[in-house]
Specification:
Elements (H helix, E strand, L loop, with lengths): L13 H8 L9 H52 L2 H63 L5
Helix pairs in contact: 2-3
Length: 152
Amino acid sequence: MFNNNYNPFEMFDFQKILTAAKFPNVDVNSDAVISSQKKTMEAFASASKAMFEGVNAFSKKQVEILNAAVNEVKEATSELAKGNTQQSATKSIELAKDAIEKAQANVAELAKINEKTAKESFQILNARFLDSLTELKNVVAEQTEKKAPAKN
């Protein structure tokens, strides 16, 4: 019988883990920390903008593909209606082949748009994450120096 209330994190006592880590006390109201968090929010805004632009480009391409497909179907049905049965069969096979090739090209193009969007967003956030670690290291070092007793 399965227990639906199982919590996999019950085996960890996070309070003990955080206490054992002995993180330094950092003044979160310092100008450096506030500036760092502001830059992080700006990075999130930039990444969101990149994602929005990517989704917008993806949607526009989908609409373009759909419109082209509808036009091609209209043309194909009118061409098939004009010819005899044997010509129609040959033409429909050619049309099916062309449609598959176009679909493959369209999927590849949509995949490129998605890849570009994900890459841009990741690069923005990754760069900010690495910068924020350096900033945090500097803040901790600076505050540790201030608290250390002066040696004569």
